[in-house]
Amino acid sequence: MAIALDTEHHLQIKSECLPRIQPTLMCPDSILLPKVLQMCLVLTLVYCTAFFLLGKTAAPPSGSLFQFITLIAVALTFGKAFEFVDIPPLIGMLLAGILLKEVGFINFGSEYKEAILSLRKISITVILIKAGLYLNPEVMKRLSWIVLRLAFAPCCVEAVTCMAVAYLILDLPLLWGLLMGFVIGAVSPAILVPSLLKLEKEGYGSKSGIHTLGIAASGIDDILAITMFGIILGLIFDAGTFLSDIIKGPVGVLAGVIIGVLYGLILIYVPHKSEKNVVFYRVFLQLAGGIVCIFGSHAIGFDGAGPLACMVSTFVATCGWSAAGQDPAALKSVTTTFSGIWYIFEPVLFSVIGTEIHLSRLSGRIVLQCLAVLLLALMIRLLVAFLVTAGGVFERRERFFLAIAWMPKASVQGLLGPIALEMATKQNDDQAGMRGNIASS
């Protein structure tokens, strides 16, 4: 045949055959399968590396590191499966954690529990930084009053409602009910922020500034819940005087704002905009600074200061970069990088939260009573969130959307709930332990 002698003809045949051969011998045109294979390969290589370096702790089936990597792999698989049928992936990740815990596969050693708690805090740091990067200063100024109303009113009203209903239904003392209320009252930034950003990218609510309102108010809402939780916890367990517990809240908020502004101003000028690896250093300094704020504020007993400083510093730095006329591509690269980091930490956060839900330990009666408390509190919250957004630039359907968006619970509850249970358990009091279990569940 002339094909072997005719080079041009040979190349033409090859180019015509390649599109038909490629899907068969390589991956199909769909992006789903390559993504799944990519993640499986990454996890396999991470596990093999950990096994050769750490040995026993990574050995199957009882090694804690082996269990953790398996948990992440299953969570990613469930998340992708749920996303494929248009269900939020975090539900699949949460379900993966619950199922693996209930079948007895997950049993982390005591040395890993602290490490997993730290990973959860880092996950929240990432989502707070991601939220700060997307805040719009012009919209913040225009909607500042609505931001404060939406941040304070629904959370406080839900907490008080929860206190009253828990007193009537669960026979919890008022302080325990209020503690439970502020655990429940915090909106989950890990659910709300990615959802709002996705809608904003698709063009929904861009003119009215819904995503900026939701992100800013959710940060303040969480800081309020964490601060009040710390104050009430101190009152219940006599961790300090009444006056010191009350003062700690405003001092923590003020400290968070001051630290956030100062660190944000530093980040405007460090690294310099002409630095060759400016994106790398900005991402590193943002993330490392946020982690120091979150862990440092917890170490000194001002838990509300860390998340606030984390979000404020990111917001100040972003405003400074834009005002200085720095390259928009660099800012976009920072935002894209944090989106990639969140892709890693999302299954960590939600699967670990799932492992802490012990369905088998809760009686049917307690579960139904807790659900009644939660549903009644959420109904009141929904109504209050709808009312406080009145008188602004939002249409009625946008206000209804905000009210529904203000209901998710996950990440903050996963942080605060175990603290109440742990402190109650340390009291060696069965009644306090029972109350702590109810408040954290």
What's a quick, concise take on this entry?
With 441 residues, this protein is mainly α. Helices cover 78% and strands 0% of the residues.
Structure description:
With 441 residues, the chain is mostly helical. 78% of the residues lie in helices and 0% in strands. It has 18 helices and no strands. It is globular and about 60 Å long. It starts with 6 loop residues before the first helix and ends with a helix. The N terminus is likely disordered.
Largest sheet features: none
- H/E element order: HHHHHHHHHHHHHHHHHH
Unreliable stretches (pLDDT < 50, length at least 5) are: 1-28
Q: Give the number of DSSP strands.
A: 0
Task: Specify the number of helices.
Answer: 18
Structural class: mainly alpha
Helix content: over 70%
Measured by DSSP, the beta-strand proportion falls in: under 5%
Shape estimate: globular
Distance between the termini: 77 Å
The Rg value, from CA coordinates, equals 25 Å
- Average pLDDT number: 81
